[in-house]
C-alpha cells in the first residue's frame, strides 16, 4: 500500500466531513459526535479500500501516559497500515500534548492519526501546530438551523439515490431534528422501509407521534386560522403527555418565520439565503402570511412572549397558557 498523502505545509482549509482527505494527521474539532463519527467512518473506509488489513487502535487523551502514541505508531511485525484514533483532546493530559507535538513533526509512515477535540482552548499549542502544518481540519459543529438540518436530510437521500419531497423533509426535521444522530437514523429507516418518492405521509406513519411533529401540527393549524383543528390537536397532545414548552416553541418559530417574510419581496431562494431558512420554509411562511396582517402579528408575538414565560414557571397553569396562545393566534389569523 502506498502511504497516506502527506499534509501540505500551509494553513489547513476546512475539510468536508462527508469526504475527508487522507493525510498523516487529521483533526476533528467540535462537539457534534455524530459528525465526528461519520468523518472517522469515511477515513476508515478509504484506508480499508487501499488495504483491508488496516490495523485500528484507539487512545483516550484524557487518560494518556507518556510514550503510548509512539508505541502504537511503531511498525508492526507485518507492517500493516494503521489508523490511530485519539479521543478527548479537550481534556488531554500534559504527557499527550508533549508526545503529540513531537509526533506531528515526523509522523510514522503508513499511519493515519485522527485527533478528536470537542472544542475549547485546551491544547491550543497543538491546535496551532496542526494548523501551521496544514493538517486537514473537519469542523464538527451542531446543525442548529432548520435549513442546515433540511440540507442534511436531502443529502442523506441523495447519497442513497432516493428522493424525498420538500414537505416530507420539513416533517422529518420537525419530528426528529433535535438530534442529528436520530435524524440520520430516521433517514436510514425511511430509505430502507419505503419505495419511490418519500412523502410527508410516510414520515407521519413512522414519526407522527413524536412531540416535535405534534407541536408543528398544532402550529400549522393555528397559523392557518383553523382554530377547531388547532385546539383539538393541542388537547390530544396535552392528553397524551406532551409538555407545553415545545408546543409554545413550535408556535413561536412559525410566527417568527411569518414575521420575517411578511413584507419582503424576492425569490424564495434569495430570501432563504438572506434569512437563514430553506426555500420551502420561505414558501410555507409566505402561504401562512396570507392569513395575517401586521397588527395581528404583533398580537401573536405578544401572546407568545407571555405564554413562553408562563409555561416556563411564571404561571401556575401552563396548560391554560398554551391553550390561550393557540386560541388568540388561531382567531387572529384570517381564514
Automatic annotation (TrEMBL):
Enzyme Commission designation: 2.7.7.7
Catalytic activity: DNA(n) + a 2'-deoxyribonucleoside 5'-triphosphate = DNA(n+1) + diphosphate
Gene Ontology molecular function: DNA binding; DNA-directed DNA polymerase activity
Keywords for this protein: DNA replication, DNA-directed DNA polymerase, Nucleotidyltransferase, Transferase
Root EC class: transferase
Gene Ontology CC: DNA polymerase III complex
Keyword Nucleotidyltransferase: yes
UniProt domain DNA polymerase III delta subunit-like C-terminal: residue ranges: 213-327
One annotated GO biological process: DNA-templated DNA replication
Record-linked InterPro entries: DNA_pol3_clamp-load_cplx_C (IPR008921), DNA_pol3_delta-like_C (IPR048466), DNA_polIII_delta (IPR005790), P-loop_NTPase (IPR027417)
Signal sequence extent: none
Cytoplasm among keywords: no
Similarity-based family: Belongs to the DNA polymerase HolA subunit family.
NCBIfam families: holA
Protein name: DNA-directed DNA polymerase
Amino acid at each position: 500500500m502506498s502511504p497516506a498523502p502527506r499534509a501540505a505545509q500551509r494553513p489547513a482549509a476546512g475539510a468536508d466531513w462527508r469526504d475527508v482527505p487522507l493525510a498523516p494527521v487529521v483533526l476533528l474539532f467540535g462537539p457534534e459526535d455524530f459528525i465526528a463519527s461519520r468523518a472517522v467512518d469515511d477515513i476508515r473506509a478509504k484506508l480499508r479500500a487501499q488495504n483491508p488489513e488496516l490495523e485500528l487502535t484507539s487512545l483516550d487523551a484524557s487518560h494518556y501516559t507518556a510514550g503510548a502514541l509512539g508505541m502504537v505508531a511503531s511498525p508492526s511485525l507485518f507492517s500493516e497500515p494503521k489508523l490511530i484514533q485519539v479521543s478527548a483532546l479537550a481534556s488531554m493530559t500534559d504527557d499527550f500534548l508533549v508526545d503529540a507535538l513531537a509526533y506531528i513533526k515526523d509522523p510514522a509512515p503508513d499511519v493515519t492519526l485522527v485527533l478528536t477535540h470537542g472544542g475549547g482552548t485546551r491544547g491550543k499549542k497543538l491546535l496551532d501546530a496542526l494548523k501551521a502544518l496544514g493538517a486537514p481540519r473537519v469542523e464538527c459543529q451542531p446543525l442548529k438551523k432548520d435549513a442546515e438540518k433540511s440540507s442534511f436530510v436531502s443529502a442523506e437521500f441523495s447519497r442513497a439515490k432516493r428522493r424525498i419531497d420538500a414537505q416530507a423533509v420539513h416533517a422529518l426535521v420537525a419530528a426528529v431534528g433535535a438530534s442529528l444522530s436520530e435524524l440520520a437514523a430516521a433517514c436510514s429507516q425511511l430509505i430502507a422501509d419505503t419505495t419511490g418518492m418519500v412523502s410527508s405521509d410516510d414520515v407521519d406513519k413512522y414519526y407522527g407521534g413524536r412531540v416535535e411533529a405534534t407541536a408543528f401540527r398544532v402550529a400549522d393549524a393555528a397559523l392557518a386560522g383553523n382554530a377547531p383543528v388547532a385546539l383539538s390537536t393541542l388537547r390530544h397532545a396535552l392528553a397524551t403527555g406532551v409538555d407545553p414548552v415545545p408546543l409554545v416553541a413550535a408556535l413561536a418559530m412559525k410566527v417568527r418565520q411569518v414575521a420575517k417574510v411578511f413584507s419582503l419581496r424576492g425569490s424564495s431562494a434569495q430570501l432563504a439565503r438572506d434569512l437563514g431558512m430553506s426555500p420551502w420554509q420561505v414558501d410555507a411562511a409566505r402561504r401562512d402570511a396570507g392569513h395575517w396582517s401586521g397588527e395581528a402579528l404583533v398580537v401573536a408575538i405578544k401572546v407568545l412572549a407571555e405564554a413562553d414565560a408562563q409555561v416556563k414557571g411564571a404561571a401556575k397553569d401552563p396548560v391554560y397558557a398554551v391553550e390561550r396562545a393557540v386560541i388568540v393566534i388561531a382567531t387572529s389569523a384570517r381564514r
